[in-house]
Amino acid sequence: MVQRIVVATHNRGKIREIEHILADEMGSAAARFEFITSEDAGLPDPRETGITFQENALLKARDAAQRTGLPAMADDSGLIVDVMGNAPGILSARWSGAHGDDSANNALLLAQLADIPGTRRSARFRCACALVVPHDDGAGNNGGKGSGAAEYTEYVETGEMPGRIALSPRGSNGFGYDPLFVPDDQGCVTDQQREQNNGQPLTSAQMSPEQKDAISHRGAAIRAMAAHFAELA
Fold first, then answer.
1. Which of 61, 77, 126, 150 stands 20 to 30 A from 95 (CA)?
2. Which helix (H) or strand (E) holds 3?
3. Is 77 annotated among the ligand-binding residues?
4. SS (H, E, C) 73-98
């Protein structure tokens, strides 16, 4: 039996990341899960009123689980730049004003760091991933709209990817700040990739999805969450 899970996002790139990572961690058992976006489920976007990544991830997952009666997953991820006092942080996706405008967010970040030398552009991506699982209350209610009687099990896992901000964008893979972020961990990079990049470290956007997933903040959080998915399977 396939278990449908709502992922509180409109970003199908996140769905693909989740599927790739769980397939690596769980093997054939990952095929038991079907992931749909909140857009697929016709859900409104809840207000992200939390002040931490963990709070916002739980807020979004709880809302989706309560509205659909399905297990729901959400992450809240962001870029933390040390010299900027840990900004953009939870405001990463709307740093330039409009939510999800990657080009504008990248351009603003580069402008703000224009006078900062490469040696002081240390940063890290952080992710909090939440899974909220509704349980049948014995009367047929499983958290669907209007039942109001379900109980929930909640899990939260976190992950980080340290690195630095490049002087200019490079690469076309990924999304968000990937073209600007140079991970410290370059162990997955091939000799051919290094040669093609003139010996310079790669940005996240220059890596393949598989390479990025192996070291990413979201990858770390989802891999930690895989054990909880195993309990659902």
1. 61
2. strand 3-7
3. yes
4. EEEEEEEEEHHHCCCEHHHHHHCCCC
